[in-house]
Structure formats: C-alpha cells, structure tokens
C-alpha cells in the first residue's frame, strides 16, 4: 500500500501546481496557433510540444529535466546553450534564399538597416528599466525578429534568459500578421500604399555567385563577431548559387535545417520550465520584445518615407516594414497590405530585398552587441 | 539603478550610437558595392579592349594626302528590314510595346503574355509567335538567355499604309 502511495505521490498529478498548468496552456496555444492558424507552424508546433515536455512536473534528481545534468534533454539543449543550432539554421536559410531582388535594387537594403533601430532602442529601454547590460542586449535583439539570432546572442550574453527570449522572439515572429498591419496603416497614407514599384533588372549568375563572397568579407571585416551567423548564411548561399555543390545545398536547405529546427524548437520549448520561466523578468522581456518589434517596423517604414523625400525613384513605404527580418512573413504581410489597396500591386518580390537585408543587419547588430557587452 | 543614469552607467548611449552606425555602414557599403558590381563585371569582360586602348601609341600627324584619303565618303543609309503588319497586328504590336515598357528594355515573355491576357488582348500567343518569327522581338543571349527585347533593327509597318503609299 505504501508503495502505491509513494508512486502516486511521484506522479505529475501530485507534483503539479498552477504554474505548470499555465505553461501547459501556453504550449497548447502555440500548437493551436501553428496548426489551426498556420502561424509559423514549423516553429510553433515543436516549441509548443517542447513546452509541454518541459512542464511535466518531475521529481528533481531523476535526471529527466532539461536543466539536470546527464538528462537527454540536457544534452540536446547543449546546441542552444553553446549557440550551435542558430548558425546551422542560417546555413539552411542561406541555401534556400534567392538574393536576386536585393542584388537588383541594393538601395532597399537600407530599409533592413533602418529596422534594426528597434534593437537598440529596446536595449536602451531595458537598461532604463534596470536590466543588466548583457540581459538588455539579449532583450533588444528580439526586435531583430530573427529567432536564431536572438537565441545565439542570448546564449552568449545571458544564457539564463534563452528560454523567455526565444519564446518571445518566435511568438512575435508568428504574430507578424497581427502586429505589423496596424503600424503600417498608421504611418502611411493611401497614396503611399498605392505606389507601384518598377520591375527589378535581371541579375546575372556571376553576380549571384560573387555576392556571398563579397558580402561575407565586407560584413565580417566590419563586425567580426557576426562571423558564425553570417559565415554560415553566406556559405549556404554560395552552395546554392555555385550549382556545382547542389547536393550540399540540397542537404542544407532540407534535411539539415529540418533536423536542427526540430532540436532547437523542442529544447527551447522544454527550457521554459514553469519555475524558471514564470517570473516578473519574463513578463518584462515579453513587453519589451513587443515594443522592440513595433519600433523596428516603424523604423523601417519611416526610413522608407525619408528616402522618398530625397530620391526621385519613389518606393512604397510599406516595404520598410519588411526590414524586420522575419523571413518571409513580414514580406508577405507587405504584399497583403499593398494588395488590399490595389489588387494589381505586387510587392512581395520587392519586399524580399529589405527582408533579407534585415537578416544580415540583425546578425551584424548581434555581433556588435556581443563584442561590446561580453 | 534605473532610468537615464542606468543607461549612462552601462555606456548605453555610446553602444547604441556605435551599433546603429556600424549596421548602417555595413549595409550601405554592401549596397554600394552591389550597385556597382554589374558595372565592374562588364568592365572586367571588356578588359582586353580597354587595355588595348590604353596601350595604343600616338600616331604621327597625318600627311595632306592621308587627310584627303580619309575624307568621309557619302554613305547610303543602311537598309532596315520592314515587316508589314495587318491592322490588328499593328494594334497588338502597339499594345505589346506599351506592356513591355513597364518591364524595361529587357522583358520576359511569360510576364508579357500574362499581362496581355489580363487586358483581354485576343490571341496573344499567335501574335507573339509572329513577332518572334519575323524578328521584331529577339531573344538575348549569354547570361540573359530567356529574356527578350524589341529588335531595333527591324521595323514594323502597317500593310494598309504600304499599299496606300505604293
């Protein structure tokens, strides 16, 4: 009888408290958003299930939890803690991204730079709210709207905050279609939203091959700390464009990125154990992350308007919203908003330019913050 | 510590200013390089011609005989092939030119056909085939294979006009 009572005392039902239930509800919400609403399903479903895995109440010391040395999840989490998974994801992103719209109209890259203002304003806000500098830098990077970059930087600067920061970054990336449109409408006039972009020029194969080499050298000479992320991004793109390494490119953009996404999603989700995650700090991170995302969106749009003041070749300011690097969701949102005003206006292709340069910009920003704050 | 004092204590202003400057500089330099990459590659392709021009030694002043010999002869205007088009073909020709103008000098046929269909132009494929066969539209070679442009060396003319003229 005592044995049975012991067993019952060690079950999840007996060990659970309200915090576990809250986190299980959060995990189920993520899974729901991914499956029913199609918001970043490849990320939200693994993260959501990871949250469920991380919030099964277990007896401490059994070597089951992600923070317990020797547990399987602990070993898998190594890739997050050491910043191994994000560069591998960047390799896959590079191998699946076509940079030709950016090469055809390089001035749109400046929109990707302008959107990074969200990172630094949030960094300042976090400092002002009393966060230490390393944590403030990790929180600020949420505004880059780039999950792997956010995980990479927080693993380096504030490993304890990887869970909340990753969850915040991926949540806001998934909520791009909800967060961005109101800001886009608020900051642009109907006439501006109706601006049609001229057709981009055809980009030669040689340009596409030279770009990853030149881009890598320039960016990494300027911000060497961005090397792991940008190195893999540009390397992946070179594999794709050179055509002679197609097998490697194929692996990078399919099998490899899928495996790493599964491992990253599940372990980041599992790292949100209720006792670690449900703190006032996490709430602060979520609020600052949302602000960061909004400022980044506004920064891109306002800079596009500024460019229109000084340039003859007008650009649709909605493209500025794609400067946050949630690829390709923010570009899709630009297309949707532009299409609502003028069904014949195709902005997706043009929005990919600031969108991709936003990825490069946020990786440079992460490198800069890392080198300043480590 | 909170507020502005916390920002100052952590060198927040400096890090922010430096960070934004570095990100902007990085992407602006990359954008400038990419904007000129095409020109650089074109110059590289023409490097032999450019080097030849650079190496060319100055010639001695020409003698009066040479000057006389070099006087331009009266040239006859080169004959430009003319394709006679029916009234309908002339109209479609004008439409196509208007549609391709939006794509630029170089255009893609699928996009042209898509736009022509959207605008209700009848038998766009047949007309396009005619223009291609008669050389009014020509395919580009090399790395731009798959793209087309209007052939400046072939003119279109209304067949009716031609008859009236004759």
UniProtKB/TrEMBL annotation, chain A:
One of its GO terms (biological process) is sodium ion transport. Pfam families: OAD_beta (PF03977). Keywords: Cell membrane, Ion transport, Membrane, Sodium, Sodium transport, Translocase, Transmembrane, Transmembrane helix, Transport. Its main location: membrane. It comes from the Bacteria. NCBIfam families: Na_pump_decarbB. This is Oxaloacetate decarboxylase, beta subunit. It comes from Desulfacinum hydrothermale DSM 13146.
From TrEMBL, chain B:
The chain crosses the membrane at residues 12-37. Residues 52-78 are annotated as: Disordered. Keywords: Membrane, Transmembrane, Transmembrane helix. This is Oxaloacetate decarboxylase, gamma chain. It comes from Desulfacinum hydrothermale DSM 13146. The lineage of its organism: Bacteria, Pseudomonadati, Thermodesulfobacteriota, Syntrophobacteria, Syntrophobacterales.
């Amino acid at each position: 009888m005592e044995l049975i009572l012991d067993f019952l005392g060690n079950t999840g039902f007996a060990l659970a408290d309200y915090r576990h239930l809250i986190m299980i509800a959060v995990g189920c919400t993520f899974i729901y958003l991914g499956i029913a609403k199609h918001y970043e399903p490849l990320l939200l479903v693994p993260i959501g299930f990871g949250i469920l895995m991380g919030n099964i109440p277990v007896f401490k010391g059994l070597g089951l939890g992600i923070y317990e040395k020797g547990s399987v999840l602990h070993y898998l989490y190594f890739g997050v803690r050491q910043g191994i998974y994000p560069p591998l994801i960047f390799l896959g992103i590079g191998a699946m991204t076509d940079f030709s719209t950016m090469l055809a109209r390089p001035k749109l890259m400046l929109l990707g730079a302008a959107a990074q203002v969200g990172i630094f304003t949030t960094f300042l806000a976090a400092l002002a709210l009393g966060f230490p500098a390393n944590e403030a830098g990790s929180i600020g990077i949420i505004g880059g709207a780039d999950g792997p970059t956010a995980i990479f930087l927080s693993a380096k600067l504030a490993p304890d905050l990887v869970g909340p920061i990753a969850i915040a970054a991926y949540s806001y990336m998934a909520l791009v279609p909800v967060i961005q449109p109101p800001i886009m409408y608020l900051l642009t006039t109907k006439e501006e939203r109706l601006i049609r972009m001229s057709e981009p020029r055809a980009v030669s194969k040689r340009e596409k091959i030279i770009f990853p080499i030149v881009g890598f050298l320039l960016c990494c000479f300027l911000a060497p700390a961005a090397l792991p992320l940008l190195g893999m991004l540009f390397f992946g793109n070179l594999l794709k464009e050179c055509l002679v390494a197609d097998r490697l490119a194929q692996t990078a953009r399919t099998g490899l990125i899928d495996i790493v996404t599964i491992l990253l999603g599940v372990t980041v989700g599992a790292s949100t154990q209720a006792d670690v995650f449900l703190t006032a700090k996490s709430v602060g991170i979520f609020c600052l992350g949302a602000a960061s995302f909004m400022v980044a969106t506004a920064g891109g749009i306002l800079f596009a308007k500024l460019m229109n003041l000084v340039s003859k070749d007008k650009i649709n300011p909605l493209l500025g919203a794609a400067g946050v690097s949630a690829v390709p969701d923010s570009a899709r949102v630009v297309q949707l908003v532009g299409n609502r005003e003028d069904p014949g206006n195709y902005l997706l292709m043009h929005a990919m330019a600031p969108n991709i340069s936003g990825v490069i910009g946020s990786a440079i920003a992460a490198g800069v913050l890392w080198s300043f704050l480590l | 510590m909170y507020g502005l004092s916390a920002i100052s204590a952590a060198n927040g202003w400096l890090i922010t200013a430096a960070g934004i400057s570095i990100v902007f500089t990085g992407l602006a330099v990359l954008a400038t390089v990419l904007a000129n990459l095409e020109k650089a590659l074109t110059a590289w392709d023409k490097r032999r011609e450019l080097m030849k021009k650079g190496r060319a030694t100055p010639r001695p002043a020409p003698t009066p005989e040479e000057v006389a010999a070099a006087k331009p002869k009266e040239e006859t205007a080169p004959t430009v092939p003319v394709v006679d088009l029916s009234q309908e073909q002339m109209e479609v020709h004008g439409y196509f030119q208007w549609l391709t103008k939006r794509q630029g000098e170089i255009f893609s046929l699928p996009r042209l056909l898509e736009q022509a269909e959207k605008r209700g132009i009848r038998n766009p494929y047949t007309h396009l085939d005619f223009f291609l066969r008669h050389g009014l539209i020509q395919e580009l070679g090399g790395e731009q294979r798959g793209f087309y442009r209007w052939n400046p060396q072939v003119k279109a003319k209304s067949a009716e006009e031609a008859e009236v003229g004759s």
